[in-house]
Amino acid sequence: RKPWEKQAMSTLTQRQLDSWWMPYTANREFKKNPRIITQAKGAYFTDDRGRKIFDGLSGLWTCGLGHGNAKISEAIYQQSQELDYAPGFQYGHPMAFKFAERLVDFMPTGLKHVFFTGSGSEAADTSLKMARAYWRAKGISSKTKFIGRIKGYHGVNFGGFSVGGIGANRAMYGQGIDADHLNHTQLDENLFSRGQPSSGAHLAEQLLELITLHDASNIAAVIIEPLSGSAGVIPPPKGYLQRISQICREHNILLIFDEVITAFGRMGAKTGAEAFDVVPDMMNIAKQMTNGAVPMGAVVTSSDIYQTFMDSPSKDYLIELPHGYTYSGHPLACAAGMATLDLLEQEQAIERVASLSPSFENTLHQLKGMPYVTDIRNFGFAGALTLESAPNEPALRPFLVAMRCWEKGFYVRYGADTLQLGLPFISTEQEIDDVINAIGESLQEIA
Ligand code: PLP
């Protein structure tokens, strides 16, 4: 027996396990073989067997600065004592305004107004509603359709799943809202590319075909992740985002970047917009925004969008945009977010990601040639492998590898035919080597 096997196993009863209908989880499998996380500090979880487990996805792309950061905890505690909650409808509190200002400073030039939400999914649906309302305010109410992208992920709400392009997330839910989709940018000729693939910019021209099909007078916005995260880290081909942005501008279509994964350092830059040098009309953020410590999201918009609502001819005491959440601008989330921005700066976390990502890239690509590995992709501190499908079971091998990794003390994400890494920004080179070795060993074990 290994030392950790002496520790008490989970004390959860079957009834407790059955009581939580877990999100995005194979509940039947999980409840036969629970993986229970009881503590977290820095880049490590502890499980209910007392084992230390390296957090290879920073939670769910949320906790880049590491878990249990004392400055974030302290900020949340202090705020909870000073003002735990304040309504954000028709009344405000200082932290939300101050945090919004800090976020505007953090954003690329041009994004100037922050609409707080409680999550990334809420940010997605907020941005879509804003886009429709914007065109209506401009007197062009026919502009209601959205263009998303195959393999895109924009959360789980009605707008988000409709513009999203991962089949499994849509299949059970029937009709959503009116949306069409661009092709994804994963081309065979780009297999095993490092960073941004060099070919694929031409795929942006497909937007012109969709405009011909639907007419720009009917299209409100294009929404894309600058780098597709959930579908397995698909960096944009060089020049692709620039061309999408240009076509949107020329056809009066708003461009929304869903940066729920890419903002706040993951790309080795403040945002994906900065990393890839394209500024959208709206940017959706969440996850790393509070280092995952308190749920929060936001849509950050251009002045043109904000001002369009402020210039509406209605009376000043009437609401310009009838939209918002009970927890929009929650004081505890704002406090966590402010502390997160401080830490990103003080610890030079973004610079650290930028400087270590070439070494992550080299180590990750050493998995080329391992059993079943058909592609490897990376950018910043995000990376993924595609595994060759087992007969009729594309999701099986990633699951088996992730379970092996978990047993070895490494948490990595598996989704469809991919394995994904979103390293903590505080990872050391040794930890990078170790997690990638664990994946390599696991691949050999299942071969
Ligand atoms: N948008 C993107 C790009 C995401 O990656 C996610 C979550 O993974 C979401 C939206 C949804 O965020 P949430 O799960 O906070 O609703």
Provide the descriptors you would attach to this structure in a database record.
447 residues; Aminotrans_3_PPA_site; Aspartate Aminotransferase, domain 1; 38% helix; 2 domains; Aminotrans_3; 15 strands; adenosylmethionine-8-amino-7-oxononanoate transaminase activity; PyrdxlP-dep_Trfase; 17 helices; Aspartate Aminotransferase, domain 2
Write up this protein.
- It is a single chain.
- With 447 residues, the chain is α/β, with parallel strands linked by helices.
- It folds into 2 domains: 3-65 and 348-446, Aspartate Aminotransferase, domain 1; 70-346, Type I PLP-dependent aspartate aminotransferase-like (Major domain) (Aspartate Aminotransferase, domain 2, 3-Layer(aba) Sandwich).
- The chain contains 17 helices and 15 strands.
- The protein has helices at residues 3-6, 14-19, 27-32, 58-61, 70-82, 94-106, 120-137, 158-163, 167-170, 206-214, 240-250, 272-276, 303-310, 331-346, 349-365, 396-408, 429-446, and strands at residues 37-41, 44-47, 52-55, 111-117, 145-149, 179-182, 219-224, 254-258, 282-285, 297-302, 373-379, 382-387, 410-411, 413-415, 418-422.
- It has a 7-stranded mixed sheet, with helices on both faces.
- Strand 1 and strand 2 form a beta hairpin.
- Helix 5 runs antiparallel to helix 14, helix 15 (349-365) runs parallel beside helix 17 (429-446) and helix 16 crosses helix 17.
- The chain is globular and about 65 Å long.
- The relative contact order is 0.15.
- Residues 1-8 have low confidence and may be disordered.
- Its cofactor is pyridoxal 5'-phosphate.
- Belongs to the class-III pyridoxal-phosphate-dependent aminotransferase family.
- InterPro entries: Aminotrans_3, Aminotrans_3_PPA_site, PyrdxlP-dep_Trfase, PyrdxlP-dep_Trfase_major, PyrdxlP-dep_Trfase_small.
